[in-house]
Design goal:
Helix content is 28%, strand content 30%. The protein contains 11 helices and 18 strands. The strands form 5 sheets. It has a 7-stranded mixed sheet, with helices on both faces.
Length: 350
């Protein structure tokens, strides 16, 4: 029955707030500036509460979350800076782009029969920068499978069990360590992790009982790769608004100028110029005033056919011409004037 309940919850067991508080007390935030930032990644963020609490407790940082379950992802999107609603195994992450990996993975086996805890650890570690902090939350017995990986890729490792009564539910522990710049063979560290998997562990220190042990890495500020491998309409729309074509100010100025700017031609316009302006719609609904009258102008171009001389008297030949016209509405009298090509007044009516 416990197994069925676990599957129904998609292996989601959020980190208790009291545990987050104790873990945060072990971490000293890195000094940040407009050129250096800390990035915190949680690839199993649930509703985002644990990562948000951790970030707030250490004084901030850019928060990045990944969550497969859509309802929890929607809640996490409201409190985290960046969120991908999808599988953590189908994302593109900036290599070594994050200061901290908060990892509380599902406690289950994957479709390939391998433990998900270890799969998440090996897949997500690449996102950590050298010196970046791993916070790995798993049942204590699962440490044995990941002992070699942890020992060879992380240094300064420490392990604590959850405090009572939280420890009773899943016998969980927290492993903290800094990512090594290069992989090494660390026999002593391997033996230590194997002992942690089965032996008694110290309890997470209560806040204020110890000084911070780890300091987060400050990384160069700027965008970092964080995207799903699948198309997400909401993410695409947000990206377009932030970096798309319509953010080009030169283009926006062309399409939607900030205001009307009267321009006087260098030379008087000829008839051909007028035809081009009419065809382009520049004389549509323009209001002209000269102090004594006000008229609304609309230009248009129409095709007309005219008979032309034919070398064969029995064959009629017509040729198409473009006729330009300007229609004026006198706003005082309500009269229309249609001025056809050549300046001849063709029609006048009330």
């Amino acid at each position: 029955m416990a197994r069925l309940e676990s599957v129904a919850k998609a292996q989601f067991y959020p980190t208790p707030p009291s545990v987050v508080e104790r873990v945060a007390a072990l971490v000293r935030p890195a000094p940040r500036s407009h050129r250096r930032v800390t990035r915190l990644l949680d690839p199993c963020c649930g509703a985002g509460d644990a990562l948000r609490q951790f970030a707030d407790a250490i004084g901030g940082g850019e928060t990045y979350g990944i969550e497969l379950e859509q309802h929890r992802a929607a809640r996490a999107r409201r409190i985290l800076d960046h969120l991908i609603a999808g599988s953590a195994f189908a994302v593109r992450l900036g290599h070594e782009g994050f200061s901290c990996l908060w990892l509380n993975p599902p406690y289950d086996e994957g479709e390939d029969g391998k433990r998900l805890e270890h799969n998440f650890l090996t897949t997500m570690s690449r996102a950590l920068a050298p010196g970046g902090l791993l916070i790995y939350i798993v049942p204590q017995a699962r440490l044995a499978q990941s002992a070699r990986y942890l020992a060879s890729r992380y240094e300064g490792l420490r392990c604590y069990r959850f405090q009572d009564p939280e420890y009773d539910a899943f016998r969980q522990c927290v492993v903290l360590g800094r990512r090594r710049a290069t992989q090494v063979i660390a026999a002593d560290a391997l033996a230590q992790v194997e002992v942690w998997a089965t032996g008694p562990l110290p309890e997470l220190p209560s806040p204020g009982s110890t000084s911070p042990i780890y300091e987060l890495s400050a990384l160069p500020a700027g965008p970092v790769t964080f995207a799903s491998q699948f198309f997400e309409p909401e993410a695409a729309a947000a990206e377009a608004l932030e970096r798309g074509l319509w953010t080009n100010m030169a283009l926006i100025e062309r399409f939607w100028p900030a205001g009307e700017r009267p321009v006087r031609p260098l030379m008087p316009l000829r008839r051909g110029h007028l035809a081009v302006l009419i065809a382009a719609g520049f004389l549509n609904n323009i209001l002209l005033e000269d102090g004594s009258s006000r008229v609304l102008v609309k230009g248009r171009i129409t095709k007309v056919s005219r008979p032309v001389e034919s070398p064969d008297p029995e064959v009629e030949v017509e040729r198409e011409f473009l006729r330009t016209s300007v229609v004026l509405l006198d706003l005082e009298t309500g009269e229309f004037e249609d001025i056809q090509q050549g300046g001849q007044l063709m029609e006048s009516s009330a």
